[in-house]
Amino acid sequence: MTWTVMPSFDTYEQARSAFEWDLPDSFNPAVDFVRKHDTDSVALEQAYPDGRRESYTFGDLDRRSDRLAAGLADLGIEAGDRVGVVVSQKPQNPLTHLANWKLGAVSVPLTVLFGPDALRYRLADAGAKAVVIDPSVRDEIDAVRDGCPDLEHVVEIETDDPAGDARAFRDVLVGAENQSVDLDPYDATPDTETAIMYTSGSTGPPKGVLHSHALWLGRAAAAFNYFDQGLGPSATVWTPADWAWGAALGGTLFATWHHGGTVVGFPKQSFDPEEAFGLLDEFGVTHSFMPPTALRMLMGVADPAAEYDLDVETFAAAGEPLTPEIVEWVESTFDDVALNEFYGQTELNLAVGNSATWFETRPGSMGKVLPGYDLAIIDPETDDDGELDRLGTGETGEIALRPHDRSVFFDEYWNMPEKTAAKRVGDWFLTGDLAERDDEGYVRFESRKDDVIITAGYRVGPMEVEEAILEHPDVAQAGVIGVPDDTRGEIIKAYVEPASGVGGDDDLRAEIRDLVRENLAEYEYPREIAFVDELPQTTTGKIRRLELRERDGIE
After folding, report:
1. What pTM did the predictor assign?
2. What is the rounded CA–CA span in Å between residue 177 and residue 173?
3. At 5, is the pLDDT very low, low, confident or very high (cuts 50, 70, 90)?
4. 239 touches 252 (CB < 8 A)
5. Which residues contact 440 (CB under 8 A, 6 or more apart)?
């Protein structure tokens, strides 16, 4: 294949046998995403909650990122420097990434939802020299400056006269609006450092994941498949997911631009299903990365196919398994709309997925390993002796992945050589995720390796129990952990967030236990259930089971 265009394979078997990574000798994503396309084609349709609308062509983004790169260079940003990006779904977010790469600098994507402790840790750990921020996080950034000794420059968007020593984004831009700046992009390759992306911290302190530019080509290839080979100049793509999240940034925003399509941006922290359908309608969105939690909320809108004029061809989902009712809702609500789940890691790209073009989606399955990768299910207890102890179909074990080109996986954990080494066994990379694969190649996620509950000798994946609890109409969210028990070793405890307007009581506890017993196994029901107003979540929407354990005093 050529790296600029993902070939359209008719069958999964053909794709697995014929696809090969063919990465170029020279590659700069800033050139690939905006400079190789028709300068007058629309790259970004920007919407704001107050009703404002803006449109940016590929030429606009190229010129503006040139001006920003020149301005950052005037501040002393050089190749290899790290630059934080704490901006929501606004044009300044991708413009900063593009400007960084035109200078050879390394991006550090961070969410505006982070508090001061989270920002301090990441900016200090990455050694960020500058950070471009949204006004909403200005107080948090001011609070962490003393703890970030390398942070020399703060650039604030949408501000004419920022306080202190911060600079206004518009003042950093060199030249006048629509003026071209004489800037030669950094002479980069697929192996040039591109970003430090932090793990969600669902089971421990966040780790900085250092990637090279090949990351974006890997994600563009995956997106082409889980969006059913529909990405191209005619595609319009939107996701409600934060652009700080790798699947949204690389697997949606930049994947769309790699293929020449249009992205819709909308900076809203909370998800409103009616508003979401309105955006899908207004901009003629054809492909959407929609996390399962968002899809569940969309299910509350009555008859959306009749209420809205929708052009959606494919919903793609990741972050948590799709439950059967979501699949059934999409099938019964829309005509010819595919729903494709996919799986990846911050470290290991997007390597497993569904594609309606190739095979049917099966509820509960993440799909099959994508072209360009190999997958094995291994014994999680014998993965450190240099050999993989592979398990058979139907057996639960740890997912191990092997890329056909090493460059599309991460380089290292930032300043953590021991953890980097522990991630690999030969050419294989260990995920820490438990799953099983059936005889047709479908992979079903079970749980994180270190989240497994062992009760009375049975191994229970908490996510499976959570999915069962979520089947109850009076449950909004659920988080499951194991707590010590003198008789069983551990028992299953569920923290449950009731649906709006529902109070947690003994009757609901009994119904939840019965529901889990009915749908799973007798030993998998939660013997303890605690009702809470809100469950702790990572910025990517995953339940923080570590925090739930801490509530119970579990180390």
Report:
1. 0.85
2. 9
3. low
4. yes
5. none
